[in-house]
UniProtKB/TrEMBL annotation, chain A:
Reaction(s) the record says it catalyses: L-serine = pyruvate + NH4(+)
Essential cofactor(s): [4Fe-4S] cluster
InterPro entries cross-referenced by the UniProt entry: ACT-like_dom_sf, ACT_dom, ASB_dom_sf, Fe-S_L-Ser, Fe-S_L-Ser_bsu, Ser_deHydtase_bsu
Origin superkingdom: Bacteria
GO molecular function: 4 iron, 4 sulfur cluster binding; L-serine ammonia-lyase activity; metal ion binding
NCBIfam families from the UniProt entry: sda_beta
The protein's name: L-serine deaminase
Domain ACT: 148-220
Protein source organism: Brevibacillus antibioticus
Gene3D superfamilies: 3.30.70.260, D-3-phosphoglycerate dehydrogenase, domain 3 (3.30.1330.90)
Gene from which this protein is expressed: sdaAB
Annotated family: Belongs to the iron-sulfur dependent L-serine dehydratase family.
From TrEMBL, chain B:
PANTHER family reported for this sequence: L-SERINE DEHYDRATASE, L-SERINE DEHYDRATASE 1
Substrates-to-products reaction catalysed: L-serine = pyruvate + NH4(+)
Keyword 4Fe-4S listed: yes
Serine dehydratase-like alpha subunit domain ranges (all copies): 15-275
Listed EC numbers: 4.3.1.17
Xref: InterPro entries: Fe-S_L-Ser, Ser_deHydtase-like_asu, Ser_deHydtase_asu
Protein name: L-serine dehydratase
Species name: Brevibacillus antibioticus
Record flagged with keyword Signal: no
Keywords for the protein's UniProt record, in alphabetical order: 4Fe-4S, Gluconeogenesis, Iron, Iron-sulfur, Lyase, Metal-binding
Gene: sdaAA
GO molecular function (one): 4 iron, 4 sulfur cluster binding
Length: 221, 294
């Protein structure tokens, strides 16, 4: 079942005009921002398919930037996000691509500052609901509507068990899990949807596991 | 959790509950949240809808492109000054649905029900029918849960976005959702709600998504209007005891198959239908300065 909650159908509360092109775009931008963890200095946005064709009329560009500024879909500042971003010192570069993507509403967002960079591919599947297909080159199919733990680690035996052990000790139930890697033995990214929020202490405990490079938590609500 | 409309009706009737109550309990189970928390979230949606209806009926709304706005007010003036043919509840539903969708096109605040392009129908019918039936605020929130339950079934067995399944999936879904909710608010049974869904959705089958210049305005605002009318009439038909020959879930399945068979030019790409008419192309050139590459 793709849609799990009644609020996927009645909602979100949003600034119009399009749940796919405005609210969905804002949510993709916000997931990128949450993943980056702070205000980026640069945002490179590429629109594909229907996003590329109609973004001006639907405000997909302002919506995506609003998401990167960490605004909600209903935030009235959404309309002025480009000006707000400029004042905040964020450089925005928007382009469109003719490359065919699997879903017509696809956006690729790269956020960076002098120390850090993340890249994400998100699709807007309708009604404001989104899926994240790629994080830093790793493929996924996640909605990010429940807290999602992202663990970047060395691709070797025992890593999943080690992370699962920490979650078990803290009574955190796993709803859905995906592991993606570039090539065998290189780096891998674990994405774990959990039923409850994860405290900073638990995140730190996971961070201490050998062969783990980075741990972040994405929670949209 | 129920998987389709038949299971939803079975759950409701076997437990002697309304569809809205079944939806609330299912949501509590899935989200592990309290009834109170879920109700509060839906009250917040209701408040936003009410503001959008009022704004669309009283303010001079104009969309960014200038293509839409002001039609909801025109209908209200017409109702006040002329002898009109259809009943006041029906015309109010139409006018209020237009009001919300005009606010949406003008980048105002709305609730996606199930999408923004179709956001007028559920609140528009809700407030029009409420004027007649005088429900409590809780009954108004229940209307949204009933609509949501039907939308949930359609979304998981077919689709709710124009890009995926054409306008039948968007305005069509909203119309079916509203029809079921009107029946419940008017005192009909869960089975009558399901019949209203089938009757309403049947009249939306094959509807193409052909936004002019790719915008959620033309023809969407007026399709929200007719969706509200169809929902209201379908609810009355179902409560009169009229049954759909084809069962509700099979109508939803038919909608899914039609959407899959529909060419992409008719699914929100602005490449076919009204978007590809001479005037549609002229508007596109005007809105975007140049004619977009197709």
């Amino acid at each position: 079942m793709k849609y799990k909650s009644v609020f996927d159908i009645i909602g979100p509360i949003m600034v119009g005009p399009s749940s796919s092109h405005t609210a969905g775009a804002a949510r993709i931008g916000r997931v990128a921002r949450k993943l980056f963890g702070r205000m980026p200095l640069r945002a490179e946005i590429v629109f594909y398919g229907s996003f590329a064709k109609t973004y001006q009329g639907h405000g997909s560009d302002v919506a995506t930037v609003a998401g990167i500024l960490d605004f909600d879909t209903s935030d009235l500042r959404l309309k002025n996000s480009l000006v707000i971003a400029e004042k905040a010192g964020m450089e925005v570069e928007l382009s469109t691509s003719e490359v065919l993507t699997e879903h017509p509403n696809t956006a690729r967002i790269k956020l960076s500052d002098d120390e850090h960079q993340i890249e994400l591919v998100g699709v807007s599947i309708g009604g404001g609901k989104i899926e994240v297909l790629e994080v830093n080159g790793f493929s996924f199919q996640l909605g990010f509507d429940t807290p999602t733990l992202l663990v970047l680690h060395e691709d070797r035996f025992g890593m999943i068990a080690a992370v699962a052990k920490v979650l078990t000790q803290h009574n955190i139930n796993v709803g859905l899990m995906e592991v993606s890697r570039h090539t065998r033995g290189s780096r891998a990214l674990m994405a774990i949807e959990t039923d409850s929020t994860i405290s900073p202490e638990v995140l730190e405990e996971i961070r201490q596991i050998p062969h783990i490079f980075d741990v972040s938590l994405l929670a949209m609500n | 959790m129920f998987r389709n409309v038949a299971e939803l009706v079975e759950l409701a009737e076997s437990q002697g509950k309304k569809i809205s109550q079944v939806m609330i309990e299912a949501e509590m189970e899935v989200s592990q949240r309290s009834r109170d928390a879920i109700m509060q979230d839906m009250y917040a949606n209701l408040d936003v809808m009410e503001k959008a209806v009022r704004r669309g009926l009283t303010e001079d709304i104009r969309s960014h492109s200038g293509l839409t706005g002001g039609d909801a007010k025109k209908l209200q003036t017409y109702m006040e000054t002329k002898t009109f043919l259809s009943g006041p509840t029906l015309l109010n539903a139409v006018s209020m649905s237009v009001a919300v969708n005009e606010v949406n096109a003008a980048m105002g605040t709305i609730v996606a029900t199930p999408t923004a392009g179709a956001c007028g129908i559920v609140p528009g019918t809700l407030f029009a029918v409420s004027d007649k039936l005088q429900p409590t605020r809780e009954e108004m929130v229940n209307y949204l849960f009933t609509a949501g339950a039907i939308g949930y079934c359609i979304a998981n067995n077919a689709f709710i976005s124009g890009a995926a399944g054409g306008c039948q999936a968007e305005v069509g879904s909203a119309t079916a959702m509203a029809a079921a909710a009107i029946v419940e608010m008017a005192g009909g049974t869960p089975e009558e709600s399901a019949q209203a869904v089938a009757i309403a959705l049947k009249n939306m089958l094959g509807l193409v998504c052909d936004p002019v210049a790719g915008l959620v305005e033309v023809p969407c605002v007026k399709r929200n209007a007719m969706g509200a009318a169809i929902a209201t009439v379908a609810a009355d038909m179902a409560m009169a005891g009229i049954k759909s020959v084809i069962p509700t879930d099979e109508v939803i399945d038919a909608m899914y198959r039609i959407g899959c068979a529909m060419p992409t030019t008719l699914k929100e790409t602005a490449q076919g239908g009204l978007a590809a008419t001479q005037t549609g192309r002229m508007i596109e050139a005007k809105v975007f300065g140049v004619r977009m590459e197709k």
